[in-house]
Design a protein that fits this description.
- Four copies of one chain form a homotetramer.
- Chain A contains twelve helices and twelve strands.
- Chain A is α/β, with parallel strands linked by helices.
- In chain A, the strands form two sheets. Chain A has an eight-stranded mixed beta sheet, with helices on both faces.
- In chain A, strand 8 and strand 9 form a beta hairpin.
- Chain A starts with a helix and ends in an 11-residue tail after the last helix.
- Chains in contact: A-B, A-C, A-D, B-C, B-D, C-D.
- At the B-D interface, helix 8 of B face helix 8 of D.
- Strand 8 of chain A pairs antiparallel with strand 8 of chain B, so a sheet runs across the interface.
């Protein structure tokens, strides 16, 4: 099913617009507002996250919504739409064909990475005028493309509505970076009725033209902060009155990395950030660490996270300082259903630009789409995570990351064909039988 | 010698003005400009630091002068005066009586502390409208008062010029915090001709009304930074490609604090600040530490500084990262001459508001006035460091520090009387004989 | 080929004798002497290790041979045989049939573990009177059984000599624990002419009756010591004169365990032993650590060993102490040839007591038989490491380890049948063709 | 009062005998037995420690008395005397003149250091045939001389009994090393009736001929052990099943040395000994540390001991291992009474060989005689700790320590003269009046 040129052009323009105005997790007010307006305009029924997620399930929320809304307005977001969004970004949009049939849910993540984009002429987004205007924020993982593909898919599906049955739902998910938003979306039950669930990611180390129908082997990961609070004192005059939070954190960092490996599989610890102290001549009264632990399985992830907490509490005791640990994000592992992956493969066959197909692929990283995949599978549905290859200028999260925009029409066609196969009025495709 | 009320009022107003516009070490462009204008107006001969200090002797210079000058202008400094100041703040002002007699040098330090001032109504400077408008900078050590007292002393001495002989010089020294500026001033020879040298500090843990004629036992101190540079990598995907600067710094911090004490006397190590890493899921490619080492004697200070460097280099080797150490400041110890202290005591006797006199006092901290004291003593002069008690709202360097302004007239009278005794036309006071 | 009862009885008696007089690596004088006497008596041609190994290839030699020979004599070894053994234990015994045919080499390791055997009645060797009489030494890995099986195999082969062709060689290898002796044996070329090489191990977590024809996936491992030398001093009186080797070692231990995992596969670090210091009130002048590093591949093993050395040298620099690193043992990984494993499987089929057969098995541990396996394979021969299951009272290296002696006749029959298939006058078995 | 040559010769011979048979703290069975026999023979009334000390007050008792008694017998001690000694070494011997007068108590410590004596010809005790025959034990602190001087003093006093009044008591104290035995002696009240108490030490960094009448400024010290218990596991196969006691101890060691210094005065921490682990390839299940903390005052000692415990418990928590801390010894600080020191000075004046007198001296180390000094002072008596200079071949506790035996007659004469002044029938010396 060929993609019209105007749809391709619009998709590329939107991706560049999103790229220029990247928004970090839980701060995607402009992106959510723009997506909502487009979706409503073409007839999708939009529900905002604030109307279905449970604030208690939200992880890693550290924005000041008033401030971000003000910014979003200054960058073109509609004030009235923002009022409807409230404090929680993201949305779910549904197309109900009115005909009996399966429920298919697609997930697109929309947040950016917290890194400062390169601003020299060798970097294409700079050269072509759409590099980030938001300091410290950059679409360095392709979610700008995900959002644009999602909106184009919405338009194409609406055009083909008469040949479809059942319901199709598009999730525009906030805060995938740091694996924070997926959990709240899953727990809200927004995909509980799904017969089929498909998440999509561009790039992932594969060149434009390659398609992986089903991805699995995600690492379970826990993201958390440790906040040490001691007591400051004059380091020369009366050091004994201080309680040294910096040394507690330093001891915790080294000993956390010394957590024993596990015979059950790979584990990881990373103290990625440590900031401590106030002045050169003051016993440091505070220290803050950003940490992540990972494991190949839920058990391994739990093992290393539990050990890390022991180290942190022990280090705090060593220096008689207080410490609090706050979970900032968490994700599990998941596996794509082979049947659904096979269907996606058949949807990809013959799509324009597709040159390489693989049914399964193992993923070294983490994605909180796993929460949604698991939830759908637990409710009896099938789930798949499709990888759409895209040549890139640098690795994911690098400040020179940029992906080949030719991958977007491929993604769109693969998803559109998949939807047509799953929800076409012709009935359940053979590949899903037995 | 009573201080006129208008002088007292002006001194207080100036102190509050300086307090509102605090300037960190080597950034005291506004303070220097205002002092220069006042001094020149009343007849002192002003020389700016840039015309006598050797840039090679300057430690811990980390400001962008163009940027600070722009700020200073926006905060009322005169553009033409700033042009004369160049890149180095501070000045020396001389009153030559034309009469044969001794050279007496007074030193006032003028920089602020790098801390964010409290901004609630319980804090007097906030309540009375003169709290800092410069974010992250605060006069939390009383140098605003030192500058104001110095200018009032200039005025009083000029009024009494006809009863004086010899020369009097006032040093307005930059960058005492971090013990950075005193060395360059001393090495410039700006006090080499001094027969008498007097430094003054307000507060120091004593209440208003107390005066310590001579202070000694300063700790020798070295201030330095360590900058670790490793290699970032995806902490989950390929951690082995990283070189972990955070762990190198953490190991250095803990082991530096484990440097053995010395039977020769007290030593101190403080890793006051540690900032490391870029993102939670990236092997930290960088780490920066602000450190100070101290010792009761030059030998002890050298011992602990040498050990600290060994630890840092060893930690870098452990994690295969690069490290550079840069000295940011340094000071030695010094002792007040008892004779000069005794003279100051006699100058303090009968001064308004003085309730407690002590000839000698031991100081737990460091002050780079020591460089000037030693230099004067090596050239055959006498030096003293006078402590003027001032009740305070909180300890020095605390963000709620504020001192009792009633201490300023006391300081002024003690210094003025001292100058009159030393440089009065009546000849050398008996206390200095034998 | 059934094993006569008297052979079984003798094998069991010898195992118990070896168990009672365990000898640590490079100290197996009694074991070597007894084996030599038996082998020579029944007609094997014995060459002692000292006559073929190169002392420069010997790793981890830390015995005083004179002392161990004296002990061996007191425990029944023959003085004249000991004289022939010299300083290096172990031997190679050859049976040359005189008929043209392949060369088959079997390897039996003979040393014990350095652990103190349990001496209570719940421990069978104690109850039945053959627990270790050598303090701190114990056959806790089954090598007593290996030696006994090897001698029984020698006897059985000699009995069946007329049905054999080619040559058969039995290696009684010293110092497998700590992977020290295998390298010297391999480098001596003692298996270079082998067409077939078979190593055997009892136990390995499998119950009596199971046989694994080919084992692979051994971990590469490096065993090494780090010896820190500082300077002692009175810890109260003049601590600064000391150089603290204990703290250097402690810092090295923690930071060595913090070496980053590798995306290429599993790695391990273990600081197994740390002994430091002389007295409570003396700055510790010395520290000694026993360390091992492992990796799933040679590259991974090299990665972690190189990192460990960096940490050690860095820690020594931190505390200004000297350190030397000495390699005590090393082994590589190896894989059993599937063809030879298949032949062993066919040799095991129908052997008395065999209940479970598996062609391949992955090994979590290390064995320096790998040096011999690789050497044989590089010279064009086939190699296999056969696992003979044996139920055990506790895990390998535990002080309550004891294995089911019923496994010995199984081991003997499997090896005997293998030899008969390989060196039988009937020619090369079909399973090796293709 | 000149010392007869035969007394000198006998004293030297006894010192060499004690030196040859050194006995560690609480193991001084031979020394106690020999002293008891001599003292009883010349008429002193001997009470053994077991008859007055409270076992609950005994610290750091870690000998097996049966075993040590057997050794003592084999080294010449009398069996019947040993029976009277029981399990606790040490004794108190009293000479009651029958005449009314003051009670004067002298204390001599008798235990050795746990170090292996040098055994080459450069070491005088080896060359002259009286080096230690007890492996790992050595009189490296001069207590062999103390015991010999004490016995000679007993003899001289008995000879001069008719010129004396009041009572004189000699304490032969066990276990001074590790400051273990003094507390039990003091708590037993064995010096509660003392008007005068004098302890004596040879050496202390001063040459033969110097005498310090009163010593003070002893460091308060706590000696304690930390015993970490984790779980062993195969370090390659399943490291996650282990709980690493070695790493817990290593982390504790480094961080304990990082305890902040105190503005109130000097403190010390020393992890003197660390032994951990069982085998190179086993996750270390155990670690044992010998630690001492010191402070210039009781408050400082308490500060650093409390901090050390926090570090130990925190480190155990970090590695999820158990730890127990057991106090092995403890002492306080004390000051010599200046009056009694002055009397000792007058006793030393004119003594043969005395060349240098000083009334007061500050001591860098610790001695549990302080418990006795304090107890006596609390009961209204005067106490002094007299230093008798003795040139030495190497520092105290060094394995080449040996002292100039010419110091012994000086010590004897100073103590004898002191006793004569204090308990002479002539009455209280003038120096003690007012």
């Amino acid at each position: 099913m060929a993609i019209p040129q105007n749809i391709k052009d619009e998709m590329k323009a939107r991706r560049r617009d999103f790229h220029k105005y990247p928004e970090s997790g839980w701060a995607e007010f402009r992106t959510t507002a723009i997506a909502a307006e487009i979706l409503e305009k073409i007839g999708w029924k939009v529900r905002f996250a604030k109307d279905f997620i449970d604030p208690d399930e939200v992880m890693g929320y550290n924005v000041v919504p008033q401030k971000e809304r003000t910014r979003a307005i200054s960058q073109g977001a509609d004030k009235k739409t923002l009022a409807k969004i409230g404090a929680y970004t993201g949305l779910a949009a549904t197309l109900d064909t009115g005909r009996k049939g399966p429920v298919t849910v697609f997930r697109f993540d929309i947040d950016c990475v917290e890194t400062e984009e390169a601003h020299d002429a060798e970097h294409l987004p700079e050269r072509e005028g759409f590099s980030s205007v938001n300091p410290g924020w950059m679409h360095a993982c392709g979610h700008d493309g995900h959002a644009a593909v999602g909106l184009a898919l919405a338009e194409m599906l609406m055009r083909k509505k008469d040949g479809l049955r059942g319901k199709i739902r598009l999730l525009f998910q906030p805060a995938e970076e740091g694996v924070r938003g997926g959990y709240a979306m899953a727990m809200a039950g927004v995909a509980d009725d799904a017969d089929y669930f498909i998440a999509m990611h561009l790039g992932l180390g594969k060149p434009t033209g390659s398609v992986s129908g089903g991805t699995g082997g995600f690492l379970c990961s826990t993201k958390f902060d440790a906040d040490f609070r001691g007591i400051g004192a004059h380091a020369g005059g009366e050091p004994e009155r201080g309680k040294n939070a910096l040394l507690a954190a330093a001891a915790a960092a080294v000993n956390m990395h010394a957590i024993s490996p596990h015979s059950g599989g790979a584990t990881r610890v990373n103290v990625g950030v440590l900031n401590a102290g106030e002045g050169r001549n003051v016993v440091p009264p505070n220290a803050h660490m950003k940490i992540e632990t990972r494991g190949e399985s839920a058990e391994l992830a739990a093992y290393v996270y539990a050990k890390a907490k022991e180290v942190i509490y022990g280090a705090a005791q060593m220096y008689d300082v207080d410490v609090s640990i706050s979970k900032q994000g968490e994700t599990i592992t998941a596996e794509s259903d082979r049947k659904l992956a096979a269907l996606i493969m058949s949807a990809a066959e013959g799509a324009e630009g597709v040159t390489l197909l693989e049914e399964y692929r193992s993923m070294a990283g983490s994605d909180d789409a796993c929460w949604l995949m698991r939830r759908v599978q637990e409710h009896g549905g099938l789930a798949a995570y499709v990888g759409i290859g895209a040549s890139t200028a640098a690795g994911h999260h690098n400040n020179r990351f940029d992906f080949d925009e030719e991958a977007m029409p491929i993604a769109l066609e693969v998803l559109l064909n998949s939807a047509t196969l799953l929800n076409g009025t012709g009935g359940t495709p053979a590949v899903l039988d037995n």
